[in-house]
Amino acid sequence: MSKGISLVICLFISFRAYPQQMDSVINVVRYPQEMNIAYSQLYVLNSDIGDISFFDQGHPDKRQYILNTNIIPNFYITPRKWRFNIVLTPVVRARIIANQKSLPVRTPSFNPGGQIYFPIDRTKLTDYKYLSIGYYHHSNGQDGSPLDSLGNPNLYNGNFVTNYLIANYHLGKITTKQNNYLRLGLELHSGLVKTGDEPAYRDLFGKLRVNYHYAYTRFARIVNKRTRNAVPQSSEITEEEKYRLVISGMFIVDNITAKWNQYFNVEVKYYRKIQGSENAAFFGSVGYMGHDYYNVYFYQPYPFVRIGIAASNAFLYNQRFRNQQRKVERINSTL
């Protein structure tokens, strides 16, 4: 009789423990997938930001721009739970010249391409590290002579084309209050192997570059009060971006026919998120463009100040990342 009772007790304990064991097994499988989702949100949070500025002054040849825009969309085409993420980024840059007839857009830049991102260490989110590699094509849609009568780049309709590879190392530290993020990378243009570029620019254009990007983002807890008929009903607390300070640029490593001040770019940007807007911010920037990113204009260095509006999903992903981070921590506590 006692043996039968003991058997019943053992079976009861086993059945009670079985769901817990199954939950643990399921969480072992879910944990790396949920970590991958968190990293995919970090990629968005740290992505480059598009912007529009107005009435830029002081450019070479007395050019004045009524509008200067950098459109940087990101298409995340792989499932977020995958070990890697493929992101397509067809960048478009356009500048409308204010002091020329018909307000022309002279040779806009078309810069389609993409990158593959993958984390280095999937055991940490607060101190994160990941890598990315990518390929881009850059052209201006023109087919005129690349050089003018003086032997300088033809800014009217000169042909421009290059193809390049990038490899980036990303690292950072994120807390409930701030995100410190650093990106270092190499950029290798096809002119290094004398193909896929405009031969006339080969001795003038930087083909091997070191890129850098540092961003400090500050977060704030926003209390959103809900009312009905002017009577407070409830409140919701969200963790949103408050402002972002970015220092970015590049320097050219290979030898080109240029002055010392044409070997580097540097820019300091400050973004102030518009409260109540999901993905927009006011921004201001100051810097020096030694090697312009705008196709045939690459050979004209100049200092600049820009003020305008910026937009990116990077501004709204802190709350999503924070929710996912808590989810990962809950799963990790059961392992």
What key phrases describe this protein's structure?
alpha+beta; 18% helix; 2 helices; 15 strands; 335 residues; globular
Query: What structural class do the secondary elements suggest?
Result: alpha+beta
Q: What share of residues is helical?
A: 10-25%
Order of strands, main sheet, comes to 3-4-7-8-9-10-11-12-13-14-15-1-2-5-6
If helices are DSSP runs of H or I spanning 4 or more residues, what is the number of helices?
Answer: 2
The overall average pLDDT, rounded, is: 89
Q: Give the helices and strands as they follow along the chain.
A: HEEEEEEEEEEEEEEEH
Number of domains: 1
Count the E strands: 15
* Topology-level CATH name: Outer membrane phospholipase (ompla), Chain C
The biggest sheet, with number of strands, parallel, antiparallel or mixed sense and barrel status, is:
15 strands, antiparallel
The coarse overall form would be globular
Distance between the termini: 39 Å
Under the CATH scheme, the architecture is Beta Barrel
- Please indicate the percent range of residues in DSSP E strands (runs of 2 or more): 35-45%
CATH superfamily: Phospholipase A1
List low-pLDDT spans: none
CATH class identity: Mainly Beta
Q: How is this structure best described in words?
A:
- This protein has 335 residues and is an alpha+beta fold.
- The chain has a single domain (2-332), classed as Phospholipase A1 (Outer membrane phospholipase (ompla), Chain C).
- The protein contains 2 helices and 15 strands.
- It has a 15-stranded antiparallel β-sheet.
- The longest helix has 44 residues, at 2-45.
- The mean pLDDT is 89.
